[in-house]
Amino acid sequence: MTKNELFDRIVAILHDSFEIEPSRITPEARLYDDLDIDSIDAVDLIVQLKPLLGRNLQPDAFKAVRTVQDIVDVLYGLIREKAA
């Protein structure tokens, strides 16, 4: 899965689950400041991202995540790690 495909999936999840307008969801968008994703929402988001990997996601992997692009980068790294 490419980074663009991951971004598109994340946009769909944020729109469907949190009713965020897709036009607000950019790679640079900050989850808390720009998209109003709080810590409880972040846990819900991690649960919904699990099917992209087919395994449990460790919350520690998301400690440094601040933007939508950070989510893409972490997921992309985990997918590549699984494939290796």
Structure description:
The modification O-(pantetheine 4'-phosphoryl)serine is found at residue 39. Carrier of the growing fatty acid chain in fatty acid biosynthesis. Its main location: cytoplasm. The structure is a single chain. The chain is mainly alpha-helical. The chain has a single domain (3-83), classed as Non-ribosomal Peptide Synthetase Peptidyl Carrier Protein, Chain A (Orthogonal Bundle). It contains 3 helices and no strands. The protein has helices spanning 3-18, 39-53, 68-83. The radius of gyration is 12 Å and the shape is globular. 11% of the residues are buried. The model has no long low-confidence stretch (mean pLDDT 90).
Shape-level CATH architecture: Orthogonal Bundle
Net shape: globular
* Main β sheet profile: none
Query: What's the CATH superfamily, by name?
Result: ACP-like
SSE-based structural type: mainly alpha
Overall pLDDT level: 90
Strand residue content: under 5%
Strands, count:
0
Helix fraction bin? 55-70%
The rounded distance between the terminal residues' Cα atoms is 14 Å
Q: In the CATH scheme, what's the topology name?
A: Non-ribosomal Peptide Synthetase Peptidyl Carrier Protein, Chain A
List segments where confidence is low: pLDDT < 50 over at least 5 consecutive residues. Answer: none
How many alpha or pi helices?
3
Order of helices and strands: HHH
Structural domain tally: 1
What gyration radius follows from the Cα positions, in whole Å?
Answer: 12 Å
Organism: Pseudoxanthomonas putridarboris
Modified residues (O-(pantetheine 4'-phosphoryl)serine): 39
Function: Carrier of the growing fatty acid chain in fatty acid biosynthesis.
Main location: cytoplasm
